[in-house]
Amino acid sequence: MIYPEHLQIETVAGICSAKCIMCPIDTSPRKKIMSDSFFFKIIDAYKDIKQHLEFTTLHGLGEPLLDKNIANKVRYAKQNGFPSVGFATNATHLTQEIGRHLLEAQLDTIIFSIDGINKETHEAIRINVNFENVIKNVLDFIQLRNKMGKTKIIIRMIKQDLNKDQWDKYFSYWGNKLNSNFG
Fold first, then answer.
1. Averaged over 23-40, what is the pLDDT?
2. pLDDT band at 93 (very low <50, low <70, confident <90, very high)
3. How many CA atoms lie within 13 A of 63 on its CB side?
């Protein structure tokens, strides 16, 4: 029998605080945050194949941190043995409290979407997002993870015309902030 290697659950559909120039979120047929009970049903339905999964992703076309219960969803998936639970975020809504809850829930991976090395570039690509706030939130989370967790942190930039010349500075800046002991 052939099993999927990746389970992707869109916990927040069609809702985001940013208006990114490359994102098709306006085409999303749904605008909803998934209830915990529905999420638990999905996890329960896939329990029998979890050992075949490599990744369990909790995002799609929406901002996962708009779900006030995202840490509960992570915790439920991890308590039920799902591997490599993670999601991508623009980090706008990442507070110290949410970060702590995610680490306590044993989030395996978080991907921060930061599309420039400076305010002008990032905010031109990710409209309605405050660059300084995002950087502060990400740096605070890195410190918190270094103290109390093992969550893998990935900082990603979607290369495009507005930022393609910033890669070397971007890579150098973020490479110096992340501790390679955490993967």
1. 94
2. very high
3. 18
pTM, 2 dp: 0.94
Cβ neighbour number for residue 171 with a 10 Å cutoff: 13
Which position has the token pair 């044993």? Answer: 106
How far is 85 from 110, CA to CA, in rounded Å?
Answer: 9
Distances (CA, A) of 171 to 115, 155, 166: 12, 9, 9
Count of beta carbons in the 10 Å neighbourhood of residue 88: 18
**pLDDT the model gives residue 173:** 95
Q: What is the pLDDT of residues 45-87, one digit of tens each?
A: 999 999 999 999 999 999 999 999 999 999 999 999 999 999 9
Provide, rounded to the nearest whole percent, the portion of the chain with pLDDT above 70.
97
Contacts of 64 (CB under 8 A, 6+ apart): 11, 12, 58, 70, 87, 88, 89
Helix, strand, or coil (residue 96) = helix
Residues 23-62 as b or e (16 or more Cβ within 10 Å = b): bebeebeeeebbeeeebeeebeebeeebeebebbbbbbbb
Give CA separation, 117 vs 59, 62, 154, in Å.
24, 23, 15
Closest CA to 85 of 32, 182, 146, 6: 6
